[in-house]
Amino acid sequence: MVRVMVPDTSKTRVNESMSLKECREECLMDCSCVAFTSENEALQSGCVTWHGDMNDTRTYTQVGQDLYVRVDKHELARYAKHPYGSLGKKGMAALLVVCTCLILLMTIFIYRFVKARKQLSRRDNNNSFRLSFDDSSNLQEFNRTNNSNLPFFDLSSIAAATDNFSIANKLGEGGFGSVYK
């Protein structure tokens, strides 16, 4: 216990020549010893051991003395923190598996969502491009407003040149789709 007023000293033994370490060893070897502390806290010297009930012990926030209380090993084990918390090893393993599966499912869901969104966006872009250049009046208007040296062709002239996109005229596929001669 940290920063406490030491209990009633009517049932204590004092030995001024012992260190705190020796005091601990003496208390552990005496079955009737219930607590110990150093007589001089600043120098960590002297030994005070309690035998019997500890009356009038109070905890302070600012000042006080460190008091080492003996507790039964089995009693202490009941209140000791487990290294894996209250879950234990099996519970921790199950939690790890569930979290891993959830993260994996979320990753797959996000990947498919983004992929579907890109395909939808690409399809919308292709449809808007087709709609804007389907008739020759739109093509002529685009050529007039765009001072480009690139020639633009309407879909009907490209379809006629590739024999309606025949497989026989297909050269291969690139990043933007099929390539025809």
TrEMBL record:
Under the heading SUPFAM superfamilies, the entry gives: Protein kinase-like (PK-like) (SSF56112)
Q: InterPro entries, from UniProt?
A: Kinase-like_dom_sf, Pan_app
Q: Which domain of life is it from?
A: Eukaryota
GO MF annotations in UniProt: carbohydrate binding; kinase activity
Which keywords describe this protein according to UniProt?
A: Kinase, Lectin, Membrane, Receptor, Transferase, Transmembrane, Transmembrane helix
Residue ranges occupied by any Apple domain in the UniProt entry:
1-72
- Annotated membrane-spanning segments are 92-114
> How is this protein named in the record?
G-type lectin S-receptor-like serine/threonine-protein kinase
Q: Which organism is it from?
A: Trifolium medium
